[in-house]
Design brief:
Bound molecules: 3-amino-D-alanine
GO molecular function: aspartate-semialdehyde dehydrogenase activity; NAD binding; NADP binding; protein dimerization activity
Radius of gyration: 20 Å
Order of helices and strands: EHEEEHEHEEHEHEHHEEHEHEEH
Distance between the termini: 12 Å
Protein name: Aspartate-semialdehyde dehydrogenase
Family: Belongs to the aspartate-semialdehyde dehydrogenase family.
Subunit structure: Homodimer.
Largest sheet: 8 strands, mixed
Helix content: 25-40%
Number of domains: 2
Keywords: Amino-acid biosynthesis, Diaminopimelate biosynthesis, Lysine biosynthesis, Methionine biosynthesis, NADP, Oxidoreductase, Threonine biosynthesis
CATH superfamily of the largest domain: Dihydrodipicolinate Reductase, domain 2
């Protein structure tokens, strides 16, 4: 089994290597690919130094799986070249997510839809993954009509430059500005770019990707995505209107029995999910589960997950594990 990580020196690429090591994914060879300027650099993996190679060299090596987190343009150009030599690509960019011929996969939800014909598989957006992990079991049991979600997204979702800006603001250092505004002590209602309809790309990803993963265009989703000076994970306040009535106790039990979900919902002990405590973990944490008193058949809850782990690297590696375990590869 030969696995490539494309974008190996980036924030998510580094997390992918950590997850591959922690989950002890069996492989005969690891190929690390990054920008031309990084070729020859050494990256530590399982206590050994692995040299970064060029995209061309990696394609020529015909890896079985290529985990991509190198931006949409790189993926659009090189994922098909890997696929052409028989590699199965799992891509973390938004390039392929809404392509009707590509699958958008959260293994716990729709991993079983994968076949050996899927040579380019899209990893959903981080804020989508944690949302649909909770929505899917609820949709199956109570049939969701509408979701209103407000996100509080970690600054790590923007990238290293934004994290550095926040840290510089805290220490009073001068440095590059990733945002035209102060990040620390602030909330910025602007994740990714604004579209004609007044929403940001991030907000429309939540709407469009959720529909695709649930396989139901009748699930209506509206979102507000906000950047907050927090590391460790994205948080989401979610209001869910169902077709059918529900019982909050049953909701808690249902979610607690789902792989990949941890319910943290005990008000008497102030137990609820928080990003500082989800950092480095792979589960999706849900709490503040309560009925919306203003509308029948409607639930409020609070969802937190590490956006670099289950929101990106771990979900991608879990797709690879699924492909390997189910021998879903040509
Ligand atoms: C963000 N989900 O948080 C996007 C990309 N990582 O900015």
């Amino acid at each position: 089994m030969r696995i490539a990580v494309v974008g190996a020196t980036g924030m998510v690429g580094q997390e992918m290597l950590k997850v591959l090591e922690q989950r002890n994914v069996q492989m005969d060879e690891l190929l690390l690919v990054a920008s031309e300027k990084s070729v020859g650099k050494e990256v530590s993996f399982k206590g050994k130094q692995v040299k970064v190679i060029s995209m061309k060299q990696a394609i020529a090596s015909k890896p079985d799986i290529a985990l991509f987190s190198a931006g949409g343009d790189t993926s659009l150009e090189f994922a098909p070249q890997f696929a052409a030599v028989g590699t199965t690509v799992i891509d973390n960019s938004s390039a392929w997510r809404m392509d009707p011929d590509k699958k958008l996969i959260v293994p716990e939800i729709n991993g079983d839809s994968l076949t050996e014909d899927d040579k380019i598989i899209a990893n959903p957006n981080c804020s989508t993954i944690q949302l649909v992990m909770v929505l899917k079991p609820l949709h199956e049991k109570y049939s969701i009509k509408r979701v209103v979600v407000s996100t509080y997204q970690s600054i790590t979702g923007t990238g290293v430059k934004a994290v550095a800006q926040m840290e510089n603001e805290r220490t009073g250092q001068k440095g590059d500005m990733a945002y035209p505004y102060e990040i620390d002590r602030n909330c910025i209602p602007h994740c990714d770019v604004f579209l004609e309809n007044g929403y940001t790309k991030e907000e429309m990803k939540l709407t469009n990707e959720t529909k695709k993963i649930l396989g139901d265009d009748n699930v209506h989703v509206t979102a507000t995505a906000v950047r907050v000076p927090v590391v460790g994970g994205h948080s989401e306040s979610v209001n869910i209107e169902f077709e059918n009535e529900f019982n909050t106790g049953d909701v808690r039990k249902l979610l607690a029995n789902c792989d990949g979900i941890t319910v943290q919902d005990m008000l008497e002990t102030n137990t609820y999910p928080m990003p500082l405590y989800s950092k480095g973990k792979d589960d999706v944490f849900v709490g503040r589960i309560r009925r919306d008193l203003s509308q029948i058949n409607t639930l409020n809850c609070w969802i937190v997950a590490d956006n670099l782990r289950k929101g990106a690297a771990t979900n991608a590696v879990q797709i690879a594990e699924y492909l390997i375990s189910k021998k879903v590869m040509a």
